[in-house]
Amino acid sequence: MARFTRMTQFIGAAVASSVAVLAATALAAPVANAAFEITSFGGSASINGEFSRQAGAHADLTTEFRFPATPALVPVATAKTITVDLPPGVVGNPRAAATCTNAELVGGTFNGVGQSSVCPQAAQIGIVRVFTQPNDTEGLRVALYNMERPPDLPGLFAFNLAGVTVRIVPRVRSTDYGISATAPSVSEGIKMTGTRVELWAVPADPSHDLDRFVGDSMSNDNVIGNPPHPSDAPRRPFLTNATSCDGNAAVTSAEVDTWQNRGVFATASFDRDFDGTPFVMEGCDRLPFDPSMTVQPLSHETDAPTGLNVDITIPQSDEPYGLATAHLRKAVVTLPEGMSVSPSSAAGLGACAPSQIGIGTDAPVTCPSSSKIGTITIDTPLLDDPIQGDVILAKQNDNPFRSLLALYLVAKGPGVLLKLPGRVDPDPKTGRLVATFDNNPQLPFTNLHLAFRGGSKASLATPTACGTYNTHAEFTSWASDTPVSLDTPMVIDEGCGPRGFAPAFAAGAGNPVAGAYSPFTLTFSRKDGEQTLGGLDVTLPAGLVGNVASVPRCPEDQAATGSCPAASRIGYTEALAGPGSTPMKIPEAGKAPTAVYLSGPYKGAPFSLSVLVPAQAGPFDLGTVVVRAALFIDPVDAHVTVKSDPLPTIVEGIPLRLRQVSIIVDRPGFMLNPTSCAPSVISAAIFSAEGSVANVASRFQVGDCAALALSPKLAIDLTGKGQTTDGKHPGVKATLTQLGGQSNLKKVSVKLPLSLALDPDNAQALCEFADGQKAEPTCPKGSIVGTATARTPILDEPLTGPVYFVKNVRFDKKTGAAIRTLPTLAIPLKGSGVSLIIRASSSVVKNQLVTTFDNIPDAPVSGFQLNIDGGKHGILAVSNADICKASQVANREIDGQNNKQADGSIYMGTSACTLRVLSSSLTKTALTVRVGGLGAGKVSVSGAGITKTTRKVTKSTVASITAKLTKAGRRHRPTKVKVTFTPAGSKKSKAMTASLSRASKK
Q: 482-498 pLDDT, tens per residue?
């Protein structure tokens, strides 16, 4: 009420001041350089002559200015521009009265009391008094008219004083959306000491009949108050008090400059009635407030981008003697569960900075067009036409709320520019959106229509299931702190079939050549409308491995946060997110890149991936998303299984609605193809966020296997001094080496000579069959019969482990009975966090012991060494022979993964044997000795009368060497010979001296 009263007072004072300035043409010139001020500024609001503080009431408003004069009763200066700022909430409705044209306003003849106009009676909205003397209380009285409004103004008021017009221009302030009225460029020739304006709340009310101006300016009827003039216009309210009862006195302020000192303003304000009563509104509980709302999507299809139409309606009362509808202060709208921000909208989307919107200013809005996501239309009873504008996306965190999401509602109309900020809060778990617009303008409206744009780039997405969904709203008026709660339904009834889950899957090497390093790409995707991608387990074929030795692993603390060093990068990822035909691409052009890093142990796996995805799109930066994946190595064939953590489904309250994910491993020299060209598959289990699982596979095969060589080297040495004769138990040292770039091994089989046999009963203990078949055997320590070491270029460390002697059985096909067979070897190898189990079976073929390593993993092996213990509990026995007296020859069968074979004989070393001369013979010129206990290396003979001779031995355990005799040796028969043997790869030599046989020279 107080605010309304102040508004009326201001308008009356501004009008009165302007009239007074124009009316005082006969006054003397003002005194130069005298001080100018507003000596008094006050007002009152009344209904039927009684002061009114009722909120929302329609009360007459009276305002009065007084300016200083000299002792000679001359104004000290002439007013130029007068502006009055009414309190927020006090409004006038120019549409409540008829209008006067400019021609009608100036078309009359001066009647001797100030009035000169032929405006329609129904256009009069009040009385203006112009004072020309300091103590004048009556002044010159003129009618104030509601003028025909130009297109760029919300209203226009004017009066004609003695042929001079004064116009009052209202506008809506951008600071608090209160009404300001300005009388610009008041005539310099008119001097006044004050003005009083009486604005009528209901212009057609009979209480104003005595002050109504009617008739021709040439008749006696043009004198105000003589006689009464009833109005035949409809009774409609023109003025309305504020609808807020916050307990604070409303302040009306004014500023005036003069022609003598332009731009220097005198100011004044009041917050009380003429009698000292504060302008504090009361009775807000009596105000009607009955808002309603409808919310309808443009698309009624499930899981689709959609626009949205929102209509908020507040009926306004036009009852002249009733109370106005309370103004809307706060609106909180909660969209249905499942309706969320659509990621598809982000590509190409812009956002508006504070400097571009200019909240609280009249500055033009310069937000980029890409930030406009909808339109706004507001119907208000104060204007002939709706005001219109845009719904604009605010910059993330750079908005009045420092929030992720915020909107600006910008609407422009005649004399009004609304810039309303609103906060939008997405639920971090569900994405449900809550929009809050608080401290809205204290201005009436009948309908507010928001139209969020639709199409594939629409900012919203519909729920994923059909049904009726309610939008909840709470509207709070300026008259009460108690919100009005309501719900409005929307229906999603298209695409209602079950949400299936049949994702597509493809994976493969960019260079599918056997044994070659190649980029690797894996992609899985779903159709629009299917269940959301939630996770992935991938099983790579045997032989498709990564060279982890070539990459420094990212430390775990950095892998968890996505801050790995560039040295650990092995690839990158790409994704599509969002519903509709144009999902958002991740990463978007110009945004931070993604990365895939190799890390160490994670969730029981020896290696892991840290997949870094900067969540940046359009104007949004949602931080960094990190997805971990564990890399498990199968202990039998070394194939790799990748188990990802659940994929993110929502980030900062924005549901991602992932449509496609690709992993691209492009680090040179990392992904290594198998050397088997047999067809295989890359299989996967793809999980949906809703709990479904789809098992998929992609065919995988490499070529050019025949181009790979297969030339491994295998050396076997019998060890253990004294373990060389029948019944003894020599040890075995087998060493396999292979150069890089060849086919990986698939099978290695060795057939030992007849001189060697398996003696399982001599073992200290045997591991039970069930215990030995485990991936990590639980065999007793006593069943360990040796050690093994494997080296591969793709791991940092060798793999080592014990060799277990394990019972073996076969099962009768008919009865199922277990039949014991020759024991096997189980070799669990560990290194670099990897665990493998290598097995060897034993068989007898034509009385010869055969040991076979079958199903060797398709992985490069640079070296493998197997040591089988001999001696007390040795499992290999000499059978009816002395292994030092003859070369021990084994046979090998080696199959490559490319099906090539490398078969041949192996002349076994016999380091168990003592170096000795087995026989000798002399001729006239040479000595021939047969030496046993050799292996690969160099053997030399020397001595008195003997020319030192060296021979390279590559295979034989027993070798003959012939040395020439010296001249002395030819004359005198040598009696002793020195034999020296240096094993290959060793600097330490063995030496012995033997007596020669008594055989006579030939």
A: 999 999 999 999 999 89
Round to whole Å and give the CA distance between 575 and 586. 5
pLDDT recorded at residue 957: 75
- Please tell me the pTM assigned to this model: 0.84
First to last CA, the chain: 147
- Looking at residue 388, its amino acid is Q
- CB-based contacts of 186, cutoff 8 Å, min separation 6: 17, 18, 21, 22, 78, 79, 80, 81, 82, 166
- Taking CA 92 as the corner, what is the angle to CA 91 and CA 97, rounded to the nearest 5 degrees? 160
Kindly report whether the peptide bond that precedes residue 857 is cis, defined as omega within 30 degrees of 0. Answer: no
Can you give the pLDDT at residue 110? 55
DSSP-assigned states of every residue in 655-672: E--EEEEEEEE--TTTEE
Q: DSSP 3-state assignment of 15?
A: helix
Per residue in 960-990, pLDDT (tens digit) is: 999 999 988 888 889 899 999 888 767 788 8
Beta-carbon count within 10 A of 485 CB: 10
Q: Counting Cβ atoms within 10 Å, is residue 349 exposed (0-12), middle (13-18) or buried (19+)?
A: buried
pLDDT in tens, 304-331: 999 999 999 999 998 999 999 999 999 9
pLDDT at 995: 86
Domains of the chain: 2-270 (no CATH), 292-492 (2.60.40), 504-704 (2.60.40), 708-908 (2.60.40), 916-995 (2.60.40.10)
- DSSP class of 261: S
Cα Rg of the chain (Å, integer): 51
Residue 929 token pair: 């000795």
Both tokens assigned to 697: 């596979």
Which residue type occupies 737? Answer: T
